[in-house]
Every structure is written in structure tokens, then in C-alpha cells.
Amino acid sequence: ESGNNPGHTRQTNVTAGLSIIVYTGTGAVGTIAHGLGKAPEVLIVKNGSVAVDWAVYHKNMTDAGYTLALNNTDNQVDSGTNRWNHTAPTSSVVHIGTGQQTNQDAKSFLMYAFTSIQGYSKFGSYEGTGNANGPFVATGFKPAFVMVKNIDNGGYDWAIMDSTRTPANANGTYEFLWPNGTGAEFTDG
After folding, report:
1. Phi-psi region for residue 96, left (φ > 0), alpha (ψ -120 to 50) or beta?
2. φ and ψ at 110, to 5 degrees?
3. Angle, vertex CA 76, rays to CA 142 and CA 149, nearest 5
4. Class of residue 71 by CB neighbours under 10 A (exposed 0-12, middle 13-18, buried 19+)
5. Please, are residues 85 and 95 in contact by the beta-carbon 8 Å criterion?
6. What is the pTM of this model?
């Protein structure tokens, strides 16, 4: 790459809808080729050189300038041009801004770029109802891994549920992991 586009290496699996990219920031607005052939719907980026928040992009946030932090309970925030340069990813590139979470000059970064693959993965959003049964979210397949975050209200943990730790969800309980915390798994009914 050249100019304001960070040099990078990547491993891309188009069949799985995942690209793992390692790059060095430039501090200037730029783009990074992801190789997926369609626009990523979720991005997770970590500055490996400085202790700053993980930057998370999701296609269903208010707009492409908004971000979440994987390591805290904050709601979505408008990052301006700092993280995604207020520009959604395209079928060929991810836009990055000037901030230290996604493009600090001369710092090393790790980016995970995900896109939905029918029958394999799905990235979307839903509106909570407050109902004990909650809304029905159709994925088109039985998910083995689900990660959820309330984007409207701060103070709520990220939650991960999977089919490996408690495959049958015994006795109506579910085991959650919190990627933003350091505690052990949490069991809820």
C-alpha cells in the first residue's frame, strides 16, 4: 500500500466470511483492503502498542461514524473521523480514521473483519422488548456462538453465549461470558 493507506498483511477466508489483518498505522485517513469480496458487517480492531479501547464497528449502529468498545460497557458513541472516518466499509476496503484506536502513527494493529455467510454466520440487530421471552431473531441456522451488546444504554455488559460450554442449556439456565470483564462465566435463568 502507499500514501495514507497502511501497509498490511492479511489472511482471508471468503468461505467463512473472515479476514484477519495486521497493519501499521499512519495517523492519516486511509483504507485497508480486506479481501472478502463484500462489505464487512463487523470490525474489531486492537491497537497492539498502546493501552486503548478495542474499537468495534457494526453495520447497524446509528451510522458509520459510531463505535463500541469491546472492553467496556459504554453505549455506541460517535467517534467522528477518529475510527472509521464516518465511512462504511465497501466490498473491497475498510476506511480508517486518524485515532489511536484504529490508526495511530507507527503503531501495530490487529483487525478482524466479518461478513455474513448464509447458513454459517449472521450479523444484525434487534430491539429489546423487556418481555421475558424477548424478540425472536431469525438467523437461518442454529448458531453455536452469539455475542450481544446493548448499544443504546451504557452500563450493560457484552454477553457471549455458546453451544459448547452448556450444550443443552440444562434446567433453563444459560452461561454467559463477558468479554469486557475479568470474571468467570455467569449463569442466569
Report:
1. beta
2. -120, 125
3. 25
4. middle
5. yes
6. 0.91
DSSP one-letter string for 68-131: EETTS----EE-TTSSSTT----SSEEEE-SSTTT--TT-EEEEEEE--BTTTB----------
Query: Number of helices (H) and strands (E), helices first, in the chain?
Result: 0, 13
Instruction: State how far the Cα of 167 lies from the Cα of 155, in Å rounded to an integer.
Output: 29
- At residue 65, the 3 state secondary structure works out as coil
Read off the pLDDT of residues 18-59 as tens digits, 9 standing for 90 and up. Answer: 999 999 999 999 999 999 999 999 999 999 999 999 999 999
Question: How does residue 72 score in pLDDT terms, banded at 50, 70 and 90?
Answer: very high
The gap between the terminal CA atoms of the chain, to the nearest Å, is: 50
According to DSSP, the residues that pair with 123 across neighbouring strands are none
